[in-house]
Design a protein that fits this description.
6-stranded antiparallel sheet
């Protein structure tokens, strides 16, 4: 019959959202109220009969059968009143269903129905006419691999991962979210299909920037690599389980070298073994390079966020 909100706006818990047609329910309420009034009238009559017959029976002026009938009628009248009250209460509850109110405070979405549309079971069981998203505190779920989980626990962290470690959030434009979160949930199992475990972090969303379904990146500092050697991903060639880089000597000759890689951070790779600080690494792309070939190097300016090494 009517819609009492603006799509995409903030609604408060208990706020009226939709009004449905209530005329059929009002008719049932009036009928139930009339039944209750009739039941109360019968109760008053049979109670009066009982109050009149009981002393006469005690005086043997009336038979015990008369008293039994009066008691039975009185008890039945009381049951009728109870049933009539239940029916009236049930119709009043049904009337409440014609006033759809917000169950929580949050942002309301696009309405699935408009004024004049029929709302009923024919729409399909469980089909919502709208959705409200509470955005005051947002839950971000992500997964880490089994190897990361083992590294995490070996580093002295608790095995259930529910620790007060700060969690950083980065949006799709790589800008950091202003609020810092914390882990509050870890799944009970490692998924055998993916070899990962799901974690959940909670972030306060005071500005309302985060929305449900949004894709973000999370960053957790589990340790610090001191004086780490880091190179761009393009400089590392992988052949099965072997990782290799090309070193540029002082005489501008290319020599391959096998390295041991560490954590991969974004488009960079931490090198644990095989490289020293100050050595020059060649970025050759898809070119075919023979060991010992003489090249004319061109220096590339490369900047990185030092916090990504954590």
């Amino acid at each position: 019959m009517s819609i009492h909100f603006k799509e995409g706006a903030f609604v408060s818990r208990g706020q009226l959202l939709y009004t449905l047609d209530d005329e059929p329910v009002k008719t049932r309420i009036n009928a139930a109220a009339a039944d209750l009034a009739q039941a109360n009238s019968r109760l008053i009559k049979f109670k009066s009969d009982y109050n009149r017959i009981k002393p006469l029976t005690d005086m043997n002026a009336l038979s015990q059968r008369d008293l039994d009938d009066a008691v039975a009628n009185y008890d039945a009248a009381k049951e009728e009143v109870t049933i009539a009250k239940s029916r009236l209460e049930n119709t009043r509850i049904e009337y409440g269903y014609t006033r759809i109110k917000a169950p929580v405070s949050g942002i309301i979405g696009i309405t699935k129905v408009q004024v004049g549309d029929y709302v009923g079971k024919s729409m399909g069981i469980g089909m919502p006419i709208n959705t409200i998203s509470a955005i005051g505190e947002m839950r971000v779920r992500f997964s880490i691999s089994e190897s990361e989980y083992l590294e995490f626990t070996k580093a002295g962290k608790t095995t259930n991962l529910k620790v007060s470690l700060p969690v950083e959030l980065h949006l799709s434009d790589n800008m950091p979210f202003q609020e810092q979160g914390y882990i509050d949930f870890a799944n009970r199992e490692i998924d055998p299909k993916t070899g990962s475990i799901i974690l959940q972090a909670v972030f306060q969303n005071k500005g309302g920037l985060l929305r449900p379904g949004q894709y973000v990146k999370v960053r957790i500092k589990t340790g610090t690599a001191e004086n780490a050697v880091i190179v761009p991903q393009q400089t590392v060639n992988q052949i099965q389980n072997i990782f290799q880089v090309f070193i540029l000597s002082d005489s501008n000759k290319i020599q391959p070298r096998t390295v041991k890689t560490g954590t991969r951070i974004g488009s960079n790779w931490v090198i644990k073994e095989g490289l020293k600080s100050g050595e020059k690494v060649a970025m050759i792309g898809n070119a075919i390079i023979k060991p010992g070939i003489l090249v004319k190097p061109v220096m590339i300016s490369w900047n990185y966020d030092s916090t990504s090494l954590h």
